[in-house]
């Protein structure tokens, strides 16, 4: 095991924070947000902060929050089950066509992405879902119907039409080459509109409960459900369903992307067995330090010993397929990416289109002002992030994108 690299922070009046942030910048507001969470009375042992840590809505992105007897819906957030999937194909770089723009257009045609508002169909949703999506939805429908019996407000949300779709923001689909010039497909998305609806509904319900019980909080976003209450059980049921939706969403997209590649690449190929599908915004029950606890990872990946994970960089940087080292102090966790150093608004103000074009040279991707908020300069250097967590994961494959699709 590599020497431990975390920083210990005593917040006073609460549990400590252990931060794997050596060599990477940490915004003071992120430290303050972490400290508020660490002062909640049901934190188990300590809060862990990953090297990609930055301020988030509700809770800090890049945080691992273990609890006993309560769950904080805003710590999971509204992009429930957001995560990554990567699959190695039998192709190598020389099998790819010279015209990578055709590859990008084929992927964009196969997977709804982005968002449009106003009248007419949202371009980020299916108009008429294909049979593959309808078949996949049948795996989730019975549990969803049961959830809607308790909470009818969830019924009129996007479920079927968002299954197998990408979304917006930092969600992406990439075609990558690894260190041996083998071709990988990698994608990033979550539970889409229905996960957002579930997250927002239960976050507001938790806040309402806190007001009803006259519980004062350091931050309203830390509203929680105590274990043993009906709302706790309902939230756990709903969030587990949304996490399953997210994982299935990525599987359906992966199938459609591989089919799109087959339409543009003459050589027959298969997706090999080496595939990873992991959440990085979720809550789950795990055993740590000999006790059963709820672990909420917001912008963090499970990195138990031998467990495979994915840590992407920005749309112009390397990404990594990793194997967990099982570091108990991090609650078997690692970062979920590079982490932002600029907000989306800051990036749009500070980064020019020429800089974005220069930073994505050699990559077939959007090079317009609409993706400046996702430009490489908006993120921490992925190499520094990986160095800061050398005791959490080992690198198995190093990927570099050649095609990137953004919503």
From TrEMBL:
Keywords carried by this UniProt record: GTP-binding, Ligase, Manganese, Metal-binding, Nucleotide-binding, RNA repair
List of residues binding GMP: 170-174, 280-281, 312-315, 319, 336-339, 406
Gene3D superfamilies linked: tRNA-splicing ligase RtcB
Catalysed reactions listed for this entry: a 3'-end 3'-phospho-ribonucleotide-RNA + a 5'-end dephospho-ribonucleoside-RNA + GTP = a ribonucleotidyl-ribonucleotide-RNA + GMP + diphosphate
Catalytic machinery residues: 336 (gmp-histidine intermediate)
Cofactor(s) the record lists: Mn(2+)
Signal peptide (UniProt feature, chain positions): none
Cofactor note: Binds 2 manganese ions per subunit.
Pfam families given in the database record: RtcB
GO BP annotations listed: DNA repair; RNA processing; RNA repair
The EC number(s) this enzyme carries: 6.5.1.8
Residues annotated as binding Mn(2+) 2: 188, 280
Annotated binding of Mn(2+) 1, by residue: 79, 171
Gene Ontology molecular functions: DNA ligase activity; GTP binding; manganese ion binding; RNA ligase (GTP) activity
Official protein name in the record: 3'-phosphate/5'-hydroxy nucleic acid ligase
The species this protein was found in: Hwanghaeella grinnelliae
């Amino acid at each position: 095991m590599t020497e431990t690299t975390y920083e210990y922070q005593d917040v006073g009046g609460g549990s400590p924070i252990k931060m794997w942030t050596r060599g990477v910048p940490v915004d003071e507001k992120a430290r303050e947000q972490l400290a508020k969470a660490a002062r909640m009375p049901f934190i188990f042992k300590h809060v862990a902060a990953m090297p990609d840590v930055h301020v988030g809505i509700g809770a800090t992105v890049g945080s691992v929050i273990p609890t006993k007897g309560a769950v904080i819906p805003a710590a999971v957030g509204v992009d429930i089950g957001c995560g990554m999937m990567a699959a190695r194909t039998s192709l190598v770089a020389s099998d790819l066509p010279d015209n990578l723009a055709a590859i990008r257009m084929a992927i964009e045609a196969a997977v709804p992405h982005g968002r449009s508002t106003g009248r007419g169909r949202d371009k980020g949703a299916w108009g008429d879902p294909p049979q593959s999506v309808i078949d996949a939805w049948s795996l989730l429908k019975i549990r969803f119907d049961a959830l809607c019996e308790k909470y009818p407000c969830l019924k009129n949300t996007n479920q079927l039409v968002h299954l197998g779709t990408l979304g917006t923001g930092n969600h992406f689909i990439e075609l990558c080459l690894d260190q041996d010039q083998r071709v990988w497909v990698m994608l990033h998305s979550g539970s889409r509109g229905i996960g957002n609806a579930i997250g927002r509904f239960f976050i507001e319900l938790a806040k309402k409960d806190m007001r009803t019980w006259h519980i004062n909080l350091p931050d309203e976003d830390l509203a929680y459900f105590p274990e043993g209450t009906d709302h706790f059980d309902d939230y756990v049921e709903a969030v587990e369903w949304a996490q399953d939706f997210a994982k299935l969403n990525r599987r359906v997209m992966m199938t459609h992307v591989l089919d799109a590649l087959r339409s543009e690449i003459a050589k027959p190929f298969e997706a090999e067995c080496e595939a990873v599908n992991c959440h990085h915004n979720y809550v789950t029950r795990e055993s740590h330090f000999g006790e059963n606890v709820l672990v909420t990872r917001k912008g963090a990946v499970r990195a138990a010993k031998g467990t495979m994970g994915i840590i992407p960089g920005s749309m112009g940087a390397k990404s990594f397929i990793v194997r967990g080292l099982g570091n108990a102090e991090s609650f078997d966790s690692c970062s979920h990416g590079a982490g932002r150093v600029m907000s989306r608004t800051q990036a749009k103000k500070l980064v020019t289109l020429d800089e974005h074009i220069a930073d994505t040279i050699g990559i077939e991707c959007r090079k317009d002002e609409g993706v400046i908020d996702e430009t490489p300069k908006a993120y921490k250097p992925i190499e520094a992030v990986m160095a800061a967590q050398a005791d959490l994961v080992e690198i198995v494959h190093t990927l570099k994108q050649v095609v990137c699709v953004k919503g």
